[in-house]
Task: structure prediction
Amino acid sequence: MRSDEAEPLDARLGMRLAELRAEHGWSLGELAERSGVSRSTLSRAERAEISPTAALLNRLCAVYERTMSQLLSEVEAEPQAVVRSTGQPVWQDRASGFVRRSVSPPHPALRGELVEARLSPGADLAYDRPPVTGLEQHIWVLEGALEVTTQATEHRLDAGDCLRMRVWGPTRFRCTSPEGVRYLLAVVRP
Result:
């Protein structure tokens, strides 16, 4: 897909990724070394030839010291005080079965945000590092069941359960319900 054919959010995201790399004065090779993502994948993401996966965005967010919501809010429309449900931006990683809705009105000066997340049956998301070290997350399962692994500890969460954690290293989110899982993620930057 050429960038002029890309989804509008993917096109803006690609441009923002290229801007961030330029702001840091890094070549594609330097960013590839820092992120562990190939130069060709980075180049294709910046040109919006591919829609980045959640894992790819997580690696880039870690390098740029941003949460995924911060990065996505930088390419969305101007922040508002109220965002109606029909106006809440939805992003999906089709490859993994992950759908993410930014519930909170975005604002760069605020540290907290709410995200509604859905994983399709069998979806398994593994992040090799947090986007921001020490990030606080509260995961409240609304429907279905979810296994969350952090700091080598596995937590099984059913509907109504809530896990609070600080993210220092790798994490894994795995849908264990045949109908999928829907959960609310509250993110608080350190």
